[in-house]
Write a structure and sequence with these properties.
Helix content: 10-25%
Number of helices: 2
Strand order of the largest sheet: 4-7-6-5
Distance between the termini: 17 Å
Strand content: 35-45%
Structural class: alpha+beta
Shape: globular
Number of strands: 7
C-alpha cells in the first residue's frame, strides 16, 4: 500500500489495483481501533431503495452521512461492528468541510 492522500488526520492508502481510489484509510485517534468496512452501492437511487427496504424490515441505520463527496449510511451488526454503504459523489473530498460529521464517518 502507498499513501494516496493525506487530509485533516486521515491517510488514504492505495493498493496496486487501479480500479480503487484507495483501499484503507487510517484515522487519528486516541487509541487503536477498527471502525468500519465500506461497500459501494450502484447509485443514489439504490442507496435510497436500500434505506426503504431497511425501514420496511424495521431496521434503522446507526448513522447517515450526506456530504458533497459521498452519501452513506452505517449499519451496526450483532457484534457492534459497523459497515458503511455508500455512493461517491463528484465533489472532491475535503475533510475540513465535513461540519459536525465525525472524521471516521466522513472519510
Amino acid at each position: 500500500l502507498t499513501a494516496a492522500d493525506r487530509q485533516d488526520g486521515a491517510v488514504y492508502l492505495r493498493s496496486a489495483l487501479p480500479q480503487y481510489e484507495f483501499s484503507l484509510v487510517l484515522v487519528e485517534n486516541d487509541s487503536p481501533a477498527y471502525h468500519h468496512a465500506s461497500f459501494e452501492l450502484k447509485d443514489e437511487a439504490e442507496l435510497e431503495a436500500s434505506l426503504e427496504r431497511l425501514k420496511a424490515a424495521g431496521r434503522t441505520p446507526k448513522h447517515q452521512v450526506d456530504l458533497p463527496w459521498k452519501r452513506a449510511f452505517f449499519m451496526e451488526d450483532v457484534d457492534g461492528l459497523l459497515s458503511e454503504w455508500y455512493v461517491p459523489r463528484r465533489a472532491k473530498r475535503n475533510l475540513s468541510l465535513r461540519g459536525n460529521v465525525p472524521l471516521s464517518l466522513a472519510v
